[in-house]
């Protein structure tokens, strides 16, 4: 198992209920996982716990047998080997595309930086855009730069927070498939959170559906559709009241 998440619990201060209750998930190398839920369901809390921006009250997270957090260990965010693409992309407006991508590669020597920059620019298909600034790019191109910056250091795991929330509906349709192709081409293990079921069904290998901090469902997109069909049939049977009972 590449990533192991076991019984994560977390509560925000002064909150009456837990934000996350005994959340567990095991992920294979290269899988694309969607965490699906409404606002306030706890999905973004999971990303923050994995990234090390919050500390769980209980539970364990490990990547490739390295423990990131448990009852005794808390690895700092910069040591976790996790990349994150924020909802607003968080690109540096005063830096070019190349400078944004190179920002996290300070440990590499200049020839290695140049080689890695070329690799990720080809991967996100933005060759020739190196000298442009974020305001000179479309929303989809900005997202690609944010992804390139996040994957440039070769992270073990890529986290994406509502990756399509800043894109208009027409662009979302195109970017969904492009993003899945990009993640699969990079062979990078990914978790993205969304409230949009269409995002989850198009991009994910598996969907994790959560409600009020608890897991409702874990499985393939087709399995979730089967659950919905069964629920619809059950609801239909309840509404089909026999004529004799109506008298």
From TrEMBL:
Keywords in alphabetical order: ATP-binding, Cell membrane, Ion transport, Iron, Iron transport, Membrane, Nucleotide-binding, Transport
Superkingdom in the source lineage: Bacteria
Record bears the keyword Membrane: yes
Residue ranges of domain ABC transporter in the record: 3-237
Molecular functions (GO terms): ATP binding
Gene3D superfamilies, alphabetized: P-loop containing nucleotide triphosphate hydrolases (3.40.50.300)
A Pfam family recorded for this sequence: ABC_tran
Cross-referenced PANTHER family: SPERMIDINE/PUTRESCINE IMPORT ATP-BINDING PROTEIN POTA (PTHR42781), SPERMIDINE_PUTRESCINE IMPORT ATP-BINDING PROTEIN POTA (PTHR42781:SF4)
Name this polypeptide is given: ABC transporter ATP-binding protein
Species of provenance: Planococcus shenhongbingii
């Amino acid at each position: 198992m590449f990533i192991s998440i076991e019984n994560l619990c977390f509560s925000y201060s002064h909150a009456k209920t837990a934000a996350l209750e005994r959340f567990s998930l095991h992920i294979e190398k290269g899988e694309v996982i969607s965490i699906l839920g409404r606002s306030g369901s706890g999905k973004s809390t999971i990303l923050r716990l994995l990234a090390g921006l919050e500390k769980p009250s209980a539970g364990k997270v490990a990547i490739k047998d390295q423990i990131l957090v448990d009852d005794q260990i808390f690895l700092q965010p910069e040591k976790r080997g996790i990349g994150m693409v924020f909802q607003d992309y968080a690109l540096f407006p005063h830096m070019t595309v190349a400078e944004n991508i190179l920002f996290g590669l300070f440990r590499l020597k200049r020839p290695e930086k140049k080689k890695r920059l070329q690799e990720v620019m080809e991967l996100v298909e933005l060759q020739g855009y190196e000298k442009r600034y974020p305001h000179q790019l479309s929303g989809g191109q900005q997202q690609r730069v944010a992804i390139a910056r996040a994957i440039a250091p070769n992270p073990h795991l890529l986290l994406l927070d509502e990756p399509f929330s800043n894109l208009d509906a027409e662009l979302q349709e195109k970017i969904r498939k492009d993003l899945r192709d990009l993640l699969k081409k990079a062979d990078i293990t990914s978790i993205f959170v969304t409230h949009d079921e269409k995002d989850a069904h198009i991009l994910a290998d598996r969907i994790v559906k959560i409600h009020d901090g608890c897991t409702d469902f874990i499985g393939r997109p087709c399995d979730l559709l089967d659950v919905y069909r069964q629920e619809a049939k059950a609801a239909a049977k309840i509404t089909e009241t026999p004529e004799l009972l109506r008298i």
